[in-house]
Amino acid sequence: MSIHYKCRHCGVSVGKIDTMSVDSQALGFHQLDDQDRMNMISYQNDGDIHVKTICEDCHEALERNPQFHEAETFIH
To answer: What is the CA radius of gyration of the chain?
Structure first.
């Protein structure tokens, strides 16, 4: 089983954790409300977990351009 982290805006792979078991509390998933959990985490049939996050470049772009928060994607 692997946990794949991808940027929700540009799609770049942010990281990957290969593990046989995972504790959702150790990953911080327990801090998400139900809506955020549904939007950010998807469970694949092969046991992998895909997590939408934000990369450093997109984070910096959002800080410089707060109006980008209104768009689902802002990288063209």
So the answer is: 14
The alpha carbon of residue 6 and the mean position of all alpha carbons in its chain are separated, in whole angstroms, by 5
Instruction: Determine the Cα–Cα distance for residues 76 and 73; give it in Å rounded to an integer.
Output: 8
Residues whose CB falls within 8 Å of the CB of residue 53, separated by 6 or more in sequence, listed in order: 5, 6, 7, 8, 14, 40
Q: What are phi and psi of 45, to 5 degrees?
A: -65, -30
Identity of residue 41 = I
Tell me, what's the pLDDT at 68?
Answer: 81
Q: Full-prediction pTM beyond 0.85? A: no
15-27 per-position pLDDT tens digit: 999 987 778 788 8
Whole-number Å distance between alpha carbons of 6 and 54: 7
Q: Where are the beta strands (DSSP E) in 2-59?
A: 2-7, 13-18, 41-43, 49-53
